[in-house]
Amino acid sequence: MGRRVLLIEDEPHIAEAIRYILARDGWAVASHAEGDGALEVIRREAPDVVVLDLLLPGRSGHDILEDLRADPALAGLPVLVISARGPGEAQAAAAGAAPARFIAKPFANADILAALRQMAGA
Q: What is the DSSP annotation of the chain?
């Protein structure tokens, strides 16, 4: 499998930090900063894994995850859910939409890398 990731995150500092650690690890990183249009970007970019924030302008990460899992062409796409919300709610969203995993903000860089490597088989 490849090493292409789509980062859907609206906080510029968080997006830049994740982009930096992934690029240093050899990932090709594309990004999108809002919920609106996220599915179209996922289809266009065809990533190996998606990093998805739950709190996005325009459309929630919950809704995007539900749409992904309802689309036969995208249902198996690995998604790493990141959120500053309470772990219970965010983990429930990820657990109900396998293959998805959850990491809370703030996160350790090593945790993001390990999760994505495992999810992408890289």
A: ---EEEEE---HHHHHHHHHHHHHTT-EEEEE-SSTTHHHHHHHH--SEEEEESS-SSS-HHHHHHHHHHSTTTTT--EEEEESS-HHHHHHHHHTTSSEEEEESS--HHHHHHHHHHHHT-
pTM, two decimals, is 0.89
**Which of 2-6, 42-46, 97-101, 116-120 comes out lowest in average pLDDT?**
97-101
CA distance 5 to 42: 10
CB-CB contact of 38 with 47 (8 Å): no
According to DSSP, the β-strands at 49-53 and 79-83 are parallel
| C-alpha 10: how far from chain center | 12
Instruction: Give the tokens for residue 15.
Output: 């997006």
